[in-house]
Amino acid sequence: MRFLHDTLPQRVRFATGDAAGQLSAEISEAGFERPMVIAADNEKELAVRVTEGLPVAVWHDEVIMHVPADVAARARSVARAHHADVLISIGGGSTTGLAKAIALATGVPIIAVPTTYAGSEATDVWGLTENSAKSTGTDRRVLPRTVVYDAALTLTLPVGMSVASGLNALAHCIDAMWAPRADPINATLAGEGARALNSGLPRIVADPTDLGGREQALQGAYLSAVAFASAGSGLHHKICHVLGGMFDLPHAQTHAVVLPHVLAFNAPAAPEAARRIAAAFDAPSAAAGLASLYTALEAPTALRDHGMPESGIEPAAAAVLAAAPSGNPRQLTSANLNALLRAAWEGEPPR
Ligand code: NAD
């Protein structure tokens, strides 16, 4: 056995019902005096509650998915004008993404308080969109120094969004099994993440107020993101990156639809990964475990339902082929990528 593994340095405070207390302890312990709080309109009320008593220097609510460059530029100006010494992001991946864009340019540290299962809070990956093209990169400055997880903050996340976001997290786990820097450490984290999500997500669907299910989903989201940050982007992430950039598709739903198709495509050529995924689902095979989870969750199944045009299949397949990750277990061709994308577009069962 031989591998090189980096673990990112980050503090995690997990305390259901106590985000405010944890945030306050973190701010005073570190001696921050001028926090900039980033929260979209939807999450404002929740953010006001969580930051009660903090010496907030400025609030910022212009949050847009995939971080358009002009939105990032305005947020950076606000941070500089108010001499922010820490960024507190309260919201989903879009909000964390905006904080990362500021940190990338200014070096101001981030404390992330996630309210979805996207997992961006535990990665050093940033993303920016300009002229309909999304660029991403990694930089240690964008890794939040601390994450405050409070499952109670996800209670308002609608069931449909909880499912899609949770499957976005599951995609981090599954793709980590064959991504370019896959190794036994991130595979173990990914397996445990998949186990937690497989248990927590059906509980949320059965009862959206089930805090135990929400805690499992958050725990799974964190493990999934740590595994993904370490393993890098595999085939699944390359496909979703291309589709999101080309057609401005909703992030979580795109991941949810594409995932079973990539698993069905790669699993036969990746027996150890398939064994780990099946074990996480406690199912006879990885594909069977994922299929029964999707049925239980009534998960999204077709890209055409989320705004992708049929005419986009061929150009998307060509773009994925050009960006193909190294070392994918199965060889990628124009024909097999076209077939995979067509099945995902139509919502056919994965082959
Ligand atoms: P999002 O942050 O856009 O949130 C989706 C919707 O849910 C929004 O309308 C938001 O206001 C709402 N919402 C969030 N939390 C809520 C709550 N608790 N209650 C009610 N409504 C709530 O979506 P997302 O899927 O969390 O994040 C997607 C973005 O994150 C994409 O831009 C994606 O590229 C990025 N992302 C980045 C990484 C990374 O490692 N850099 C990882 C995953 C996702």
Short summary of the structure?
The protein is of the alpha/beta class. The chain contains 13 helices and eight strands.
Task: Please name the defining characteristics of this protein.
351 residues; alpha/beta; Rossmann fold; Dehydroquinate synthase-like, alpha domain; 2 domains; six-stranded parallel beta sheet; two-stranded antiparallel ribbon; 13 helices; 8 strands; 52% helix; 11% strand; globular; binds nicotinamide-adenine-dinucleotide
Strand order of the largest sheet: 1-8-5-4-2-3
Query: Tell me about the biggest sheet?
Result: 6 strands, parallel
- Catalogue the ligands: nicotinamide-adenine-dinucleotide
Strand content: 5-15%
Low-confidence sequence ranges: none
What is the molecular shape?
globular
Proportion in helices: 40-55%
Based on the coordinates given, report the CATH architecture of the largest domain: Up-down Bundle
Q: What is the CATH first-level class name of the largest domain? A: Mainly Alpha
Mean pLDDT figure:
97
CATH superfamily of the largest domain: Dehydroquinate synthase-like - alpha domain
- Please report the number of helical segments: 13
Compressed to H and E, one letter per element, the order equals EHEHEHEHEEEEHHHHHHHHH
Radius of gyration: 19 Å
How do the helices and strands line up, and which of them pair or pack?
Blueprint: E1 11-14, H1 19-30, E2 35-38, H2 44-50, E3 58-60, H3 69-81, E4 86-91, H4 93-106, E5 110-114, E6 125-130, E7 133-138, E8 146-149, H5 159-176, H6 184-206, H7 211-231, H8 235-247, H9 251-266, H10 271-281, H11 286-297, H12 313-322, H13 334-346
Parallel strand pairs: 1-8, 2-3, 2-4, 4-5, 5-8
Antiparallel strand pairs: 6-7
